[in-house]
Amino acid sequence: MAKGKKKPASRVRKPAKKPAKAKPAKDGADASTQHFERGVNFAATGFLFDAIGCFRKSAEADAKNALADDAYYNAGLCYFQLGLYHEAAEYFTRVIQGYPRATIHAAAGAKEFGKTAAKAHLGRLRAYLALGRKDDAQKEIDDLNKYPDSYVVDGKGARRTFYELGLEALK
């Protein structure tokens, strides 16, 4: 570029800023919890691949941590939102097989209750439908029927079991 001439202004928009790196928790929270919380922040801001990485680190940091099942579920949900349905189904399967008795993490204002595996079966059902595997999705209904105490509270305050949601998804 010749002396005295200015560079043309760039028309490329900057992406949204990523959430700040996690700082060591003052309240003694462990690495697994920190990764989980960071994953939630990444997912909320649309950085789904970064969220997946954090959720995986959370689960792998301590597979017996109470958040491990939720971390794997959330990774599956991120893959689903990215349209990577095979990967989503794989992570939902990890929850179902590895954490059959784990309960859904109850954050403040939670609207989901019961077993994480029930939620994972519904996720897997939806992934199978997205992949065009209706027969496999239908099989998930039988499994969802085993979780009558796992449900979502809808906007009107009514309980909706994951089984009911699965039946609706199949329609």
Molecular shape: globular
Instruction: Report the CATH C-level class.
Output: Mainly Alpha
Strand order of the largest sheet: 1-2-3
The string of secondary-structure elements, in order, is HHHHEHHEEH
| Cα-atom radius of gyration | 20 Å
Overall tally of domains: 1
The secondary structure category is: mainly alpha
Portion in beta strands:
under 5%
Low confidence ranges: 6-15, 22-28
Termini separation comes to 63 Å
Oligomer: single chain
Question: On the 0-100 scale, what is the average pLDDT?
Answer: 86
- Tally the beta strands: 3
> Counting H and I runs of at least 4 residues, what is the number of helices?
7
The fourth-level CATH homologous superfamily is Tetratricopeptide repeat domain
User: CATH fold name, please?
Assistant: Serine Threonine Protein Phosphatase 5, Tetratricopeptide repeat
Largest sheet properties = 3 strands, antiparallel
Helix content: 40-55%
Q: Give me the CATH architecture, please.
A: Alpha Horseshoe
Give me some keywords for this one.
single chain; 171 residues; mainly alpha; Serine Threonine Protein Phosphatase 5, Tetratricopeptide repeat; 3 strands; globular
Topology:
Blueprint: H1 31-44, H2 48-61, H3 68-81, H4 85-98, E1 112-113, H5 116-130, H6 134-144, E2 151-153, E3 159-161, H7 162-170
Antiparallel strand pairs: 1-2, 2-3
Helix pairs in contact: 1-2, 1-3, 2-3, 3-4, 3-5, 4-5, 5-6, 5-7, 6-7
